[in-house]
Amino acid sequence: MRTRLGVAAGRVAGSLSRVTGRGAGATISGRVINVVAPGALAELGAGRHIALVSATNGKTTTTCLLTAALTTNGRRVATNSTGANLTSGIAPTLAAAGDADTAVLEVDERVLPRVVDPLAVELLVLGNLSRDQLDRYGEVHLLADAWRRVAETHPRLGIVANASDPHVVWAASPAQVTWVALGLGWRLDAASCPACGELLDWADDRFRCPSCGFAQPETPNRLEGDTLVLDDQRAPLRLAVPGQWNVANAALAVTAAVEHFSVPLAEAARAVGSVTTVAGRYMQVPLGDGRTARVLLAKNPAGWSEVLRFLAGIDTAVVIAVNARVADGKDPSWLWDVPYELLRGHAAAAAGERCLDVAVRLRYAEVDHVVEPDPLAAARALPGDTVHLVCSYTQFSALYRHFGDGPA
Amino acid sequence: MSGRDSTLRVGLIYPELLGTYGDRGNAVVLVKRAQWRGIPAELVEVTAGEPIPDSLDLYLLGGGEDDPQHLAAAGLRASRHAIERAVGDGAVLLAVCAGLQLVGDHYVAADGTVIEGLGLLDLSTRAGPARLIGELVVDPEPPLPRLTGFENHWGRTTLGPGLAPLGRVVAGRGDGDGRDTDGVLADRMVGSYLHGPVLPRNPAFADQLLAWALNVDPTSLAPLDAEPEERLRAERLQAGTARGARRWWHERRLTRG
After folding, report:
1. Is A359 on the interface with B (CB under 8 A)?
2. How close does chain B come to A372, measured CA to CA in Å?
3. 3-state SS of chain B: helix, strand, coil percent to 5?
4. pLDDT tens column, A228-284
5. Active-site residue B153, yes or no?
6. For labelling alongside B39, which of A33, A122, A288, B50 has CA 20 to 30 A away?
7. Neighbouring residues of A259: CB distance < 8 A, sequence distance ≥ 6
8. Which of A272, A296, A319 is the last residue of a domain?
9. Could you list the residue range(s) of the whole structural domain that residue A324 is in?
10. Does the active-site annotation cover B250?
11. Is B50 on the interface with A (CB under 8 A)?
């Protein structure tokens, strides 16, 4: 009864949030549900197969790709497709889940340990951990330790995890893990051993601790370029969403679909290839001058490094739109960890509420640029047929609210 | 450049251990501000596990997490003589956050572990009960102008009796030991809690470090376009001091009950 009351009250709050234009409604309605009915998560999750997806980067996309792979296989899947990934975003998703037999839920890295028990989760899908919002989240190893306590206290929990990320391996190892080696482009947060603190040896893209023996787990499952290898099967991952980082996201999602939910590999690989936009990521927004700009989300150095590798290889103008609100992290010093030098020769703009930080960074990267706080005005100021608008989280959210397809 | 050779060598020490808060930017700024003036300069990255050479003109130590700080301390102690030789020979040292703690005598972590530092400067640090996070504004002695940065640390640093701080804290916490000062300034060695990173936000400070390393007066360095940095400085100083004013008002209310 309390849960029904809470859900009803939450719906009212959510619609108010939407009609007053303050948000997509998921988070506020979830907060109301959680206050009115603290036991709601357990009740709403009961009777469904629940998988949680978490990572520093790629959790929303991986969630969407896994949902596609399961839906194509005939499951009725509920998912938090707007990226509302705190407990307050999960509750309304389940409240609206109807007869869904399965829920694929993106969950914030810090929230994950709190929801595994209430939701009776059967699968964790773990991608990567790297520095993000240091003023809020603290240091990376604290997150890895919190995840590891979940694995230690739930030895029968199923986990599908990236074997190439030392923090993820440390966190997942105590449980029943299906590993897949996705490679790790960003290693600056993986220098020391999560188990003993010594310096890790990296050779041939594999890590090993010379002191305690902690090492990359052996697995036949791996990503080779665009091809996913699972045991003795191979499948090409041909995606509609851009970038090598998304091939890794897709490989993780397909591995989870095949290994845990028994979806045939070819079917899962085809399904992830049909996804074109993920909660506004990769969407095209009109600039009002006949051109469009493609929107990418990059909120930390690991994410940015992947995006830059993609942008450096194509002919495009680039708008870098950075805010430093609470949800972005209030310290944009990470701009100096990103090799913006790769953008030399591209038309570029510094935008967002912290456009002056971006401008100074681009000056020292010797990338010519204009400075314009409004990202759309900045995009219009740049020449060329193709413009990419790379946003930090709250810049992205503002664009998605304005142009996006709204909450599902 | 101590007459070693004609290229200014800017050393970024253990970037994978002491670079959690964008401190690489300090090295980039020093190299570019030299090169833009026609002074040959190069960035030398000393990765963890390598010995630190005594041939660098500037030594930059940044911030890091606990385990990496342990590793960095061990490496620095092993290269202690090289660093001492270089500093005695006129090299410049900028140590930020964990770097500041490591050039001191020791650091007592939250769990009581003691990390032995380099002992180059008579200062010591212990972890405090709360993490100090936010804009930090520091007034150094002239001719350096007001400095802006961002702090994010547990450390409470206390200077020995013979040492002077880098400056007085105008907003934020700095050393956090109750004296409203930040860091240390001793000859050509500078320590601070100013991340941000500090040099892109404070180009005059960068030029002072360059001038020390080149053995010239900072006013003799050719002027560079200062507009982008000045706009950023103005914005950040305003953000920092607005926060400082709020804190002052809050504390005043608390003292008055």
Report:
1. yes
2. 13
3. 35, 30, 35
4. 999 999 999 999 999 899 999 999 999 999 999 999 999 999 999 999 988 888 999
5. no
6. B50
7. A160, A178, A230
8. A272
9. 284-403
10. no
11. no
